[in-house]
Specification:
Distance between the termini: 106 Å
Oligomer: single chain
Radius of gyration: 30 Å
Number of strands: 35
Low-confidence stretches: 1-17
Number of helices: 11
Shape: globular
Largest sheet: 8 strands, mixed
């Protein structure tokens, strides 16, 4: 009896692990066996029955190669699903050596038809080779796999969730003797690893649905994998790699010369001012380039991105200013993981200055010293502490929120209707503070002349068809990021090319709110899956002046009056859209104020948020009635 229990235990142990798959000589089952489609998934145009991605790296001696298998089976559930899912694309970097592209169609009655080559249409693109399978019908299952021989890929991320449900997903990668293969699965990917094979599986992954202002990508089912020589990999290992990355080469004479030239060792200059001087010097004088001679960086005025990190670190060390390397994720791409240090996910590298409570963003050359970068605001992060000759420690903290008053866009639009009652001219002044100002200053420094008009249109008349007749920039120099009295400003004179005026008998309707640029409608979006997440708090203020044409009057200015609010659970207003309109002489004066004083909002508050967004959209499409005066 004991022997029987032992055998049952062994069997259950084996069943608990997902079966290890052969990679190099991969073959599918002669008779496929797929999971039943749950009733809740039956309304989709298609469903993924199987999605297997298998990696086998061979390294050692004279061997340096990898074999990769991609195996999918998709059931077509509707006519619309045929053209959408009867194809496969292979990245061109693999095409030079892929083998065994096998395709078969399983009919609803179970009949299996291996697709001949003449029914596989090959299309060649710049970045991929695409294969389209002809003759597929509703109810069919398209199953295909291919094996790739390539150089080993030791670092990457595989996403398994898509716009249709996935019933059975598997990721498999082998470990190699020369280093450790580290992995982490998220959002439904279950670790079923054994021995030298790492396996993650998932079942019944729901379809991915994009939602505006949500951490869409961060919520997808995925597996990260990477290689490191450490026996264990944690946040200390990550810090060491980051610190060594910033270690550079000895350039003490260059750093000393820089400090002396800019008088940074003067005790009368505050730490805050010293760091501003360093930052302005870098951003105004240094060009990011593939120049690798760090000792001559100031002389050549060229640095690689990692040299920027060297430079900040070396000068701060020389001046004995305490700092902390800080790492976070792009909150829209990855959730911060306190258990696993994933280098590729820790994309937002900052230097925090405890004395001033401000940040440097070395890898975002448009970002001035002060606010954390936008993608990490209110996100979890790791802060590293290193005192001389002491062990490195770290702590997890949330990166501070930023002030709404530091991120304001203020626009003034003067609208004139030509005598033909068709042509509309707009003089618009757009003043940007905060993140947008920093980014736009960087853009106009490098954008090609032939792209300037598009830049002006896109950032002052979002997706409105206009002809730019004149433009000018104010306060575009980098140093103005430190002067709130000098916002980055775009002055434009444009002619509207699309129709804002509609005939209404002898009168006319003008959609004056379109001067704000295209706005998003959530009128059709009633359900919300994810919380609302914004990059940072912001405020948009618009002053709109419509010159009433001679011979006309306006009667319905109340059409442009809106008032919508979002409140938190303390009944405090954290978001709002308010507008007012009045007639003074022959001018309609309209003011709007749009406020988002939060970065996270529970999905239970979606109704209020939706109403606010829709109020902006409705204002954008509201019309004033121009009444002809007899």
């Amino acid at each position: 009896m004991k022997k029987l229990f032992f055998l049952i235990a062994i069997l259950l142990t084996q069943i608990s692990f997902s079966q290890e798959e052969e990679v190099k000589n991969y073959k599918w089952d002669d008779i496929p066996n797929f999971k039943e489609v749950p009733t809740e998934f039956a309304t989709y145009p298609a469903i993924v029955l199987k999605d297997y991605r298998l990696y086998e790296n061979k390294v050692g001696g004279y061997t340096y190669k990898a074999f990769i298998v991609k195996h999918q089976a998709i059931k077509i559930l509707s006519e619309t699903g045929i053209n959408e899912y009867n194809k496969v694309a292979i990245n061109n970097r693999y095409v030079r050596d892929y083998r065994d592209l096998k395709v078969r169609v399983i009919k609803p009655d179970g009949k299996i038809e291996e697709l001949p080559k003449e029914k596989i249409i090959e299309k060649q693109g710049n970045s991929e080779k695409q294969f389209v399978f002809e003759g597929v019908e509703k109810g069919d299952i398209i199953e295909y796999y291919y094996v790739i021989k390539d150089f080993p890929d030791f670092n990457g991320c595989e996403y398994f969730q898509r716009d249709i449900p996935v019933l059975d997903a598997k990721f498999q990668i082998n470990k190699i003797a020369q280093a450790q293969t580290y992995t982490a699965g998220y959002n439904g990917m279950k670790n079923e690893s054994k021995g030298k094979i790492t396996i993650y599986t998932a079942s019944n992954l729901p379809a991915y649905k994009f939602e505006r202002n949500a951490t869409n990508k961060a919520n997808l089912a995925k597996v990260y994998y990477f290689l490191d020589t450490s026996k264990t990999y944690d946040y200390i290992n990550y810090y060491n790699s980051l610190y060594n990355f910033a270690d550079g080469v000895s350039a003490k004479s260059m750093i000393k010369g820089f400090v002396e030239e800019y008088k940074l060792n003067d005790p009368a200059i505050s730490t805050d001012e010293k760091i501003k001087i360093i930052d302005i010097f870098l951003k105004e004088n240094i060009e990011i380039d593939k120049q690798y001679v760090y000792k001559k960086a100031i002389e050549t005025k060229k640095m690689t991105p990692n040299m920027v990190l060297y430079f900040y670190k070396d000068v701060l060390d020389y001046l004995k200013i305490k700092y902390q390397f800080t790492a976070s994720t792009d909150k829209f791409d990855d959730k911060f993981d306190k258990e696993n240090a994933i280098p590729a996910a820790l994309s937002e590298i900052l230097i925090y200055i405890p004395e001033t409570k401000k940040y440097l963003a070395p890898f975002q050359f448009w970002m001035p010293y002060g606010q954390p970068n936008a993608l990490s605001v209110n996100n979890d992060a790791v802060y590293f502490n290193q005192e001389p000759k002491q062990q490195v420690t770290y702590e997890f903290k949330k990166i501070e929120n930023v002030s709404i008053n530091d991120n304001i866009t203020e626009e003034t639009s003067n609208i004139t209707i030509d005598d033909d009652m068709e042509t509309i001219l707009v003089n618009k002044k757009s003043a940007f503070m905060g993140y947008l100002a920093s980014y736009y200053r960087y853009m106009v420094k490098y954008i090609p002349q032939e792209k300037i008009n598009d830049f002006v249109k896109n950032n002052t008349f979002n997706e409105v068809d206009v002809e730019v007749q004149k433009y000018a920039f104010e306060n575009k120099e980098y140093k103005n990021n430190y002067d709130p009295e000098k916002p980055f400003t775009i002055n434009t004179d444009i002619k509207v090319k699309e129709s804002w005026i509609e005939n209404a008998g002898k009168n006319n309707l003008i959609a004056v709110g379109k001067v704000l640029g295209k706005q998003t409608s959530l009128h059709q979006e009633t359900n919300r899956i994810n919380p609302i997440v914004l990059s940072y708090p912001k405020k948009n203020i618009n002053y709109i002046n419509l010159n009433i044409p001679t011979g006309y009057s306006i009667k319905n200015v109340d059409n442009l009056v809106f008032n919508k609010e979002v409140k938190n659970y303390k009944n405090e207003v954290i978001g709002s859209f308010k507008s007012s309109a009045k007639i003074e002489g022959n001018i309609v004066k309209i003011t709007t104020e749009e406020i988002y004083n939060f970065t996270y909002l529970e999905k239970e508050k979606y109704g209020e948020y939706r109403d606010l967004v829709n109020a902006v959209y409705d204002f954008n499409n509201a019309s004033l009635l121009l009444v002809r005066v007899n």
